[in-house]
Amino acid sequence: MAEDSKTTAKAPRTSPSEFFKQVKSETGKVVWPTREETVRTAIFVFILMIILSLFFLGVDTVFSAVVRWLLSLA
């Protein structure tokens, strides 16, 4: 086990200028979404947020009613 860590060679350090060149190169490969895709995704997230909010409101209301009923028995 200890020998395995000794045999692996460390990668050479990258200079800051080379690092920023690589970052610029990789950023150029990014496929940015179009305005239409961004708007469509935002609308989808908003609708899903509303649906989940209503779902958790319902679950919370049911649990609250059950707890109040159980406490009224005591």
UniProtKB/TrEMBL annotation:
Keywords: Cell membrane, Membrane, Protein transport, Translocation, Transmembrane, Transmembrane helix, Transport. InterPro entries: SecE_bac (IPR005807), SecE_sf (IPR038379), Translocase_SecE/Sec61-g (IPR001901). It is found in: Cell membrane; Membrane. The chain crosses the membrane at residues 42-71. It is a single-pass membrane protein. The keyword Cell inner membrane does not apply. Belongs to the SecE/SEC61-gamma family. Essential subunit of the Sec protein translocation channel SecYEG. Clamps together the 2 halves of SecY. May contact the channel plug during translocation. Component of the Sec protein translocase complex. Heterotrimer consisting of SecY, SecE and SecG subunits. The heterotrimers can form oligomers, although 1 heterotrimer is thought to be able to translocate proteins. Interacts with the ribosome. Interacts with SecDF, and other proteins may be involved. Interacts with SecA. This is Protein translocase subunit SecE. It comes from Alteraurantiacibacter palmitatis. The lineage of its organism: Bacteria, Pseudomonadati, Pseudomonadota, Alphaproteobacteria, Sphingomonadales. The gene is secE.
